[in-house]
Write a structure and sequence with these properties.
Length: about 425
């Protein structure tokens, strides 16, 4: 076939030959790097498959229940599969958990009691958690229930402030929350090994403290998960990595039996816990999405590395940079120019399988102090394991981009961002 036909097809899809060649050369140079990512996904694919086999997932597990959802074997078995993958005693994996924030709020609210204190030893948590905790006053926050909060920031070089953490731990400290991904901040994402290091430090001081990890965007990026290095709970969203792009909703909590039980009693009701909660027709997507998740995550990672290399070569500052190790699927690119930021998002939108013909516009998003532009043409609304990008319209005009269900799509999407800039005369190739 050769790539002449592909080049021509791409040309008909808005990719000038110059852009294609520029990108394709960089793609080729990354193959050794991609082989290493493939090795991680080989391992994780086997891990997921083994968990499904060991738990004897059967055809009957794909059928859902209605009403109360008693004896929902597919739901219960899926939770056992998650527990196997994360090497935990138990798991809660439910469509009734509406999103990542809800899963995190549930884990916190069910495991903390009035008078307890929550500690973040890794700085400010994800934006939406500020209202859950009550850092920003909010109805129903932990603060309203008399749960206090302490935060120890990372040191300027990104290291843990061990002295600060030791000083912050006290009689009331009940739960420690550790965010694996940098999210939309500029600190480094934590490797699982580093998470293990800080957990060990904390447990040496106070062994009975519960260590929870916000695992969003981190699942299957490495061969081990935070629960392999001492975390009592990992929490995440099914419209990110572990849903594999197929789960249309949901969240999970995997961890110690007591922690998961507490969460279940809070999600449904005291006395009912995990026994209720019909899965309706959602189980095939949950199982199949989980089965695909290691490979989808690897594809998204390849795309992020590709983007970092392209934009670094064009002279922009990228985080993580072109060569460093990755611990989540998010890529930040700093443009220092609003026109480049909006052009990037236009390119991602134009590359989407859904809503490719619309032009993203900056808007006043609740909770932000400047306008935000977002690009997403996803099968699942708001899914960020699908190719998506967003950035606030303020200095330094950085875009955060993530996802992509197949590397072919991310590759095309990034070419499209370049094509938009190239055609507007904003970059030279
Ligand atoms: C996405 C995310 C959340 C919140 O998840 P939502 O599904 O958007 O509510 C929390 N923490 C981190 C690190 C995330 O990336």
């Amino acid at each position: 076939m050769g790539n002449i036909e592909l080049k021509n097809l791409y040309k008909s899809m808005g990719i000038p030959e110059k852009v294609y060649d520029y990108c394709d050369n960089i793609w080729d140079s990354l193959k050794p790097r991609f082989d290493k990512i493939q090795e991680v996904s080989d391992f994780n694919q086997a891990k997921v498959l083994k968990a499904m086999q060991d738990n004897k997932v059967s055809e009957a597990c794909l059928l859902g229940t209605t009403g109360y959802g008693y004896n929902d074997i597919g739901r219960d078995k899926l939770e056992a599969v998650y527990a196997s993958i994360f090497h935990t005693e138990d798991a809660l994996v439910r469509p009734q958990i509406t999103c990542g924030t809800h899963a995190l709020a549930l884990a916190l609210m069910s495991n903390l009691r009035p008078g307890d204190e929550l500690l973040s030893p890794v700085g400010k948590p994800y934006d939406t958690l500020e209202e859950v905790i009550g850092i920003r006053p909010s109805k129903g926050s932990l603060a309203e229930y008399g749960i206090t909060y302490k935060q120890v920031d990372l040191l300027p070089d990104g290291e843990f402030d061990f002295d600060g953490i030791r000083a912050a731990i006290n009689d009331k400290t009940k739960l420690v929350t550790i965010q694996r991904s940098k999210g939309y901040q500029t600190r480094p994402t934590l490797s699982v090994e580093r998470i293990g290091e800080v957990i060990k430090f904390i447990k040496d001081i106070k062994p009975d403290v519960i260590c929870m990890v916000d695992n969003c965007y981190g699942e299957f990026v490495q061969t081990i998960e935070p629960t392999d290095v001492g975390a009592d709970m990992v929490v995440g969203s099914l419209i990110k990595n572990p849903g594999g792009g197929l789960a249309p909703i949901g969240g999970y909590i995997a961890g110690k039996k007591e922690c998961v039980e507490n969460a279940a009693y809070r999600l449904t009701s005291p006395g009912l816990g995990k026994e209720v909660g019909a899965s309706l027709g959602i189980l095939p997507q949950f199982y199949q999405g989980l089965f695909l998740a290691p490979n989808v995550t690897a594809n998204a990672l390849m795309g992020a590395i590709f983007a970092a290399n392209i934009y670094e070569k064009l002279g922009f500052s990228v985080l993580p940079n072109a060569v460093e190790e990755r611990y989540d699927i998010i890529q930040a690119i700093t443009f220092n120019d609003p026109l480049l930021l909006t052009s990037f998002c236009e390119g991602i939108q134009a590359a989407a399988p859904v809503d490719s013909y619309v032009t993203p516009e900056p808007w006043d998003m609740p909770g932000y102090d400047s306008q935000v532009i977002m690009a997403a043409g996803a099968f699942v609304s708001g899914s960020s394991i699908e190719l998506s990008a967003d950035g606030p319209l303020r200095e330094p005009y950085s875009v955060f981009f993530q996802g992509g269900l197949t590397w072919q799509h991310v590759k095309y999407g990034i070419m499209k961002t370049l094509a938009v800039m190239f055609e507007k005369g904003l970059i030279e190739l």
